[in-house]
């Protein structure tokens, strides 16, 4: 069965000492005894230290990105085996900021997914439409194309390692949130398309997270929808009390 997950994407925030402070606050404030996986994704420079800091807790560490090559002359990049060597087994791939600012196409992202899976890593794969796609009523097509081009080449068995994050670009960091009904519509659509491509078991076992201005005051309503299995949280993940409240809302 699929898991409920709340993941915090820290983006390019928090240096090493700030990372430790936020992790200590989370250890203190996160609710215990909940059936929810909690993941944090600090910057590359702080991953190894975060893994050590969180030893013995239930909080997992993910990377925000990785390169698709096994290694070599790719100045400034980080490989799957480098992440694994510091204890990071989950990676976010396809965040809209990577697609937009770093021109990561679906083909590049599919390569990254393949590399991560070759190393037995878990992938949180982000998809989501822009405002213009919603306004022109193309949002289902856009989400379908991203899903198909990034993930539909995988085998059924590989889907065990895939988590999807639906993140409408117009809701990321804008304070504008999809309504719970809008989120449910897309999540149900994603699950239906996974079932169409694979089967009901794969569809039912895939966790689909919502991301886009999730805050303590809207998390409960969004998470209450049947096809929403948790959230990928940006801004609110940087404030321990807010992130803890969002985890508690599951
Ligand atoms: C994100 O960047 O993945 C995100 C959802 O950001 P925010 O929560 O700040 O909208």
From TrEMBL:
E.C. number(s) listed in UniProt: 5.3.1.1
GO MF, one annotated term: triose-phosphate isomerase activity
Keywords, ordered alphabetically: Cytoplasm, Gluconeogenesis, Glycolysis, Isomerase
Cellular component, GO annotation: cytosol
Pfam family, one: TIM
GO biological process: gluconeogenesis; glyceraldehyde-3-phosphate biosynthetic process; glycerol catabolic process; glycolytic process
PROSITE patterns the UniProt entry points to: TIM_1, TIM_2
Primary enzyme class: isomerase
Cellular compartment(s): Cytoplasm
InterPro entries: Aldolase_TIM (IPR013785), TIM_sf (IPR035990), TrioseP_Isoase_bac/euk (IPR022896), Triosephosphate_isomerase (IPR000652), Triosephosphate_isomerase_AS (IPR020861)
Catalysed conversion reaction: D-glyceraldehyde 3-phosphate = dihydroxyacetone phosphate
Segments traversing the membrane: none
Active site (catalytic residues): 95, 167
Pathway participation: Carbohydrate biosynthesis; gluconeogenesis; Carbohydrate degradation; glycolysis; D-glyceraldehyde 3-phosphate from glycerone phosphate: step 1/1
Residues the record lists as binding substrate: 9-11, 173, 213, 234-235
PANTHER family the record matches: TRIOSEPHOSPHATE ISOMERASE
HAMAP family noted in UniProt: TIM_B
Function of the protein: Involved in the gluconeogenesis. Catalyzes stereospecifically the conversion of dihydroxyacetone phosphate (DHAP) to D-glyceraldehyde-3-phosphate (G3P).
Summary of subunit composition and partner proteins: Homodimer.
Protein family membership: Belongs to the triosephosphate isomerase family.
Protein's name in the database: Triosephosphate isomerase
């Amino acid at each position: 069965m699929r898991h409920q997950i709340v993941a915090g994407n820290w983006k390019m925030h928090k240096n090493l000492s700030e990372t430790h402070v936020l992790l200590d606050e989370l250890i203190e404030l996160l609710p215990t005894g909940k059936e929810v996986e909690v993941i944090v994704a600090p910057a590359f420079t702080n991953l190894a230290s975060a893994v050590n800091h969180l030893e013995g807790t239930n909080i997992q560490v993910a990377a925000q990105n990785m390169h698709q090559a096994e290694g070599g002359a790719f100045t400034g990049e980080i490989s799957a085996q480098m992440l694994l060597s510091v204890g990071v087994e989950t990676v976010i791939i396809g965040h809209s900021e990577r697609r937009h600012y770093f021109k990561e196409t679906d083909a590049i992202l599919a390569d990254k997914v393949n590399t991560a899976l070759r190393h037995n890593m878990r992938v949180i794969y982000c998809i989501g439409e822009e405002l213009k796609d919603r306004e022109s009523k193309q949002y289902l097509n856009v989400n379908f194309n991203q899903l198909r081009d990034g993930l539909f080449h995988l085998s059924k068995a590989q889907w065990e390692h895939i988590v999807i994050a639906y993140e409408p670009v117009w809701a990321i960091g804008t304070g504008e949130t999809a309504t719970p009904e809008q989120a449910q519509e897309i999540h149900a659509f994603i699950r239906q398309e996974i079932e169409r491509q694979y089967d009901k078991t794969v569809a039912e076992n895939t966790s689909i997270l919502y991301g886009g201005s999730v805050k303590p005051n809207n998390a409960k309503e969004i998470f209450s929808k049947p096809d929403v299995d948790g959230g990928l949280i940006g801004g609110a993940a940087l404030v321990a009390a807010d992130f803890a409240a969002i985890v508690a809302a599951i």
